[in-house]
């Protein structure tokens, strides 16, 4: 297992985190948020390898920032289950297995399927049309084979859909479960463009069913969409 301790050990080109302009937010918090986003992208894109250990100074050198926001971002990722803390060394990228994905999918189905059914019966069709641009953004990213872009579009769509329930805790929990399910598993091949497109098309199909008030169809699509069988990696 290789430890990534310095910039020289890193196999990837250094990418600076852009400066955030404008709002009067403390700079450290601003940089931490940008580093967190960059690390999430690296995880989804496979730039950070499952099982490998990365040091905060080494990652800080790669992104052109100090080690403090990197440590803070990695601690957040540890809370999300994406990495594990290795004392005196850094952070090991978690090795997600097929069983992990199956368990995540089961919990997601328990939460998201009844939530979608409740929304379908409670809201007028036009409320769901507002999610159409998010679904289209996912299709566009999937068509490019952009795994990172699709992961963000996927999260944005589900976050917006669950937000319609008005339940902040539900939205937070389902969002966290989706993040965890997006980390590439170590025991399965990476997703192909065709897989991404199939996944993205289900967002569109779900909206069509919700707008048409086809409750049974919306329930079936949601169940299949969150099922691990529909998420080949």
From TrEMBL:
The keyword DNA-binding applies. This is GntR family transcriptional regulator. InterPro entries: GntR_C, TF_FadR/GntR_C, Tscrpt_reg_HTH_GntR, WH-like_DNA-bd_sf, WH_DNA-bd_sf. Keywords: DNA-binding, Transcription, Transcription regulation. The keyword Transcription regulation applies. Residues 1-17 have a biased composition (Basic and acidic residues). Pfam families: FCD, GntR. Residues 29-96 form the HTH gntR-type domain. Residues 1-29 are annotated as: Disordered. SUPFAM superfamilies: GntR ligand-binding domain-like, Winged helix' DNA-binding domain. GO terms for molecular function: DNA binding; DNA-binding transcription factor activity.
């Amino acid at each position: 297992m290789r430890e990534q301790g310095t910039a020289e050990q890193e196999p990837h080109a250094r990418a600076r985190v852009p400066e955030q302009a404008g709002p009067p937010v403390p700079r450290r918090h601003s940089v931490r948020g940008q580093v967190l986003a960059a690390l999430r992208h690296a995880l989804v894109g496979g730039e950070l390898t499952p099982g490998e250990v990365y040091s905060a100074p080494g990652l800080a050198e790669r992104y052109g920032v100090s080690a403090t926001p990197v440590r803070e971002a990695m601690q957040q990722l540890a809370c999300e289950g994406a990495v594990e803390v290795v004392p005196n060394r850094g952070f090991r990228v978690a090795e997600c297995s097929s069983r992990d994905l199956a368990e995540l999918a089961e919990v997601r189905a328990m939460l998201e399927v009844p939530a979608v059914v409740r929304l379908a019966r409670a809201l007028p069709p036009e409320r769901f049309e507002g999610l159409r641009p998010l679904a289209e953004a996912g299709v566009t990213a999937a068509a490019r084979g952009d795994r990172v872009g699709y992961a963000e579009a996927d999260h944005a769509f589900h976050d917006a859909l669950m937000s319609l329930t008005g339940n902040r805790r539900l939205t937070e929990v389902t969002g966290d479960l989706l993040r965890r399910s997006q980390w590439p598993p170590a025991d399965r091949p990476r997703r192909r463009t065709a897989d991404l497109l199939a996944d993205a098309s289900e967002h569109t199909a779900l909206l069509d069913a919700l707008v048409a008030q086809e409750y049974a169809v919306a329930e079936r699509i949601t169940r299949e969409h969150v099922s691990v069988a529909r998420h080949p990696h």
